[in-house]
Amino acid sequence: MTLALSLFVLFYILMLAVQQYRPWVALGGAGAFLLLGKLGVYDLTLADAARAVDFNVLLMMAGMMGTVFLFIQSKMPARLAEELIAHVPDVRWAVSVLALLAGFISAFVDNVATVLMVAPVGLAIARRLKLSPVPVLIAIAVSSNLQGAATLVGDTTSILLGGFAGMNFFDFFWMEGRPGIFWSVELGALASLGVLFWLFRDQRQPVHVTVETEVEDDVPTALLLLTVGLLIAASFLPEPSGGALHLLYTLRSGLVCMGLCLFGAARACWRSRSLKPLAETFRALDYDTLLLLFSLFILLEGVSRAGVIDAAAQLFHSAAGDEPLHLYLLLVAASVGLSAFIDNIPYVAAMLPVVQGVAALMNGGAGIEPELFYFGLLTGATLGGNLTPIGASANIAAIGILRKNGETVRTRDFLRIGVPFTLAAVLVGAGSLWLFWGI
Question: One Pfam family, short name please (predicted)?
Answer without folding.
Answer: CitMHS
